[in-house]
Amino acid sequence: MRDTPLPLSLEGVSLTLPSAAGPVQILREVDLVIAPRETVAVTGPSGSGKSSLIAVSAGLERPSSGRVLLFGRDLARLNEDRRARLRRGRVSLVFQAFHLLPNMTAEENVAAPLEIARAARPVQTARAWLERVGLGERARHYPHQLSGGEQQRVALARALAPRPSLLFADEPTGNLDTATGRAAADLMFDLVAEAGAALVLVTHDEALAARAGRRLHMAAGRLSG
Fold it and tell me: What is the dihedral of CA 176, 177, 179, 184, to 10 degrees?
């Protein structure tokens, strides 16, 4: 039987981006392996490269050097369309700013990735997930009609409804007050465990980072244990 490929593997990954002052090295020789079902928190100061790490890992940004393997596939060998197909239904992202589509209801936001993945009964699945995050009665509300905590719960439902194998969360509680953030974190960890997904979490919140199975630190583009 063939071994299941690792959700994510970075091998000597560096990222350099242009700026008005000249090239800026964002990531420096980063090595990282994420095992199935593993939860990993990445902490570090602002500007240390944490969000760029997620962008490169998810195939949203091409590294300047090194290899990124997503489910065993070398992203450098895939064009944009094939990278998108590889991510579809297997990789989800949750952001600090929620990134809900403003002209869609909560239900439509959750159903959208299911429709893209051609999942069966996307609307019914979206409704079920909104019930699971305590927003069944808010399904027909638009993002501007929801509180920050409610919007983040919609974002979590949207990310986890396709049952991904890998979830990236970039400061998922950063825009929430302490109590609301704690509730959102509880929900995220519970749903990730239930889905059997791996989690890569970027956060400034030490209490949130402590909940992950492994903690890493990023400083000046370098990742350390």
Answer: 0
**Nearest CA among 73, 15, 90, 77 for reference residue 48:** 15
Q: What is the CA radius of gyration of the chain?
A: 17
Q: What is the DSSP letter of 135?
A: -
Tell how strand 73-74 and strand 65-70 pair up. antiparallel
pLDDT at 3: 65
pLDDT digits (tens, 9 = 90+) for 160-176: 999 999 999 999 988 88
Whole-number Å distance between alpha carbons of 10 and 7: 11
Query: Half-sphere exposure of 125 toward its Cβ, with a 13 Å CA cutoff?
Result: 20
Rounded distance between C-alpha atoms, residue 95 and residue 142, angstroms: 18
Global model pTM greater than 0.85: yes
CA atoms within 13 A on the CB side of 72: 6
How crowded is residue 134: how many other Cβ atoms within 10 Å of its Cβ?
14
Q: Which amino acid is at 75?
A: L
Q: Which residues pair with 15 in a beta bridge?
A: 27
Q: Cβ–Cβ contacts within 10 Å for residue 194, how many?
A: 11
d(CA 221, CA 147): 34
For residue 124, what are its two tokens? 């019914």
Each residue's pLDDT tens digit, 167-221 = 999 999 888 888 888 888 999 999 899 889 999 999 998 999 999 999 999 999 9
